[in-house]
Task: inverse folding
């Protein structure tokens, strides 16, 4: 703190011995040591408070940056969620239109060979093969043997 070497301390001790004398020197040394300890403690407390405030300030800055990152991430996720909702709504409307166009009907089916239960859907083209239009009226109906 004061950067005193041994020679400076020795010089102060000799001057104090000459000025105060041997009677008051121990009392003066205790007084100086007591105040030196108080001043050193006070300076250390101030340094610790400054360091703590600096660390707290840095921590606040880091927290603010993290909050900004989280807010940006939340905004992007909300945007993606909205896009998915619109896509889902579009798919649901397409499915409703397709379902209304290609609904499955239950029709009694009488045959000599009894088939317990079978489902036939509308024929669709197969990749690599040509699809021919169906001539059978029961291609998109559910046939139940009675």
Result:
């Amino acid at each position: 703190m004061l950067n005193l070497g041994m020679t400076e301390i020795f010089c102060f001790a000799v001057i104090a011995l000459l000025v105060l004398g041997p009677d008051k020197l121990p009392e003066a040394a205790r007084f100086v040591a007591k105040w030196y300890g108080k001043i050193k403690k006070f300076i250390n407390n101030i340094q610790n408070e400054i360091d703590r405030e600096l660390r707290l300030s840095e921590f606040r800055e880091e927290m603010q940056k993290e909050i900004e990152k989280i807010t940006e991430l939340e905004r992007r996720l909300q945007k993606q969620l909205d896009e998915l909702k619109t896509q889902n709504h579009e798919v649901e409307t397409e499915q409703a239109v397709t379902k209304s166009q290609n609904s499955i009907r239950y029709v009694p089916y009488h045959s000599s060979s009894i088939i317990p239960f079978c489902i036939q859907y509308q024929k669709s083209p197969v990749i690599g093969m040509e699809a021919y239009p169906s001539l059978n009226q029961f291609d998109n109906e559910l046939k139940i043997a009675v």
